[in-house]
Amino acid sequence: MAFMKNAWVEWIKAFLIAAILAVLVRVVLFAPVVVEGPSMLPTLEDNDHLIVSKINYTIGEPERFDIIVFHATERRDYIKRVIGVPGDHVAVENDELYINGERVEEPYLEERKQDMPDSHILTQDFTLEQVTEEGYETVPEGHVFVLGDNRNNSTDSRMFGVVPMDQIVGEAVLTYWPLERIRIVLE
């Protein structure tokens, strides 16, 4: 009888430890996120399920071209690509990205550009000054400038300005559903 009681106590302890670890992993380290909408096509598709690392930006800062999840409103999170980090001047001219006056390749857009008719462009011309209400010349400290990969169908920094880093949930690291789209997202 004492053996059965000890076995139950050990099972309860093991279950409690597992539950606490699961909560810690979910709250502190990783979060599941579901992509809603076409703004990150073709990189991410509507209804892709992602694992987002919350720890990456606790120990570091977002880097250019990271795919991040951030709080866009109290009730809604967005998934976008970091294009500008603090100190960067961002502009697009003739469908080409310029960071600090230098042309920057965007290989993740090639598939999308190839699917478009020759007369269409993916990204309308803009400068950081034109799209930020404050007229920033460079991305301010503590903020990032984000764009969706589906540039002609994305609500992003061109509409709502720079994103405060304290609104960033984390970095997308892995798609796990649907099964045929399982892959590492990190660029």
From TrEMBL:
CDD domains the record matches? S26_SPase_I
Reactions accelerated catalytically: Cleavage of hydrophobic, N-terminal signal or leader sequences from secreted and periplasmic proteins
Gene Ontology CC annotations of this record:
plasma membrane
Instruction: Provide an example Pfam family for this protein.
Output: Peptidase_S26
Cite the Peptidase S26 domain residue spans from the record: 8-177
Enzyme type, top EC level: hydrolase
Q: Which cell locations does it reside in?
A: Cell membrane; Membrane
Q: Which catalytic residues are annotated?
A: S39, K80
The residue stretches assigned to a coiled coil in this entry are none
Molecular-function GO terms, alphabetical:
serine-type endopeptidase activity; signal peptidase activity
Its domain of life reads: Bacteria
| Single GO biological process annotation from the record | signal peptide processing
The record's listing under SUPFAM superfamilies reads:
LexA/Signal peptidase
Q: Which UniProt keywords apply?
A: Cell membrane, Hydrolase, Membrane, Protease, Transmembrane, Transmembrane helix
Topological category with respect to the lipid bilayer: Single-pass type II membrane protein
Question: What EC number(s) would the UniProt record show?
Answer: 3.4.21.89
The entry sums up its family as follows: Belongs to the peptidase S26 family.
Entries under NCBIfam families matching the protein: sigpep_I_bact
Name of the molecule in the record: Signal peptidase I
Q: Which organism is it from?
A: Thalassobacillus cyri
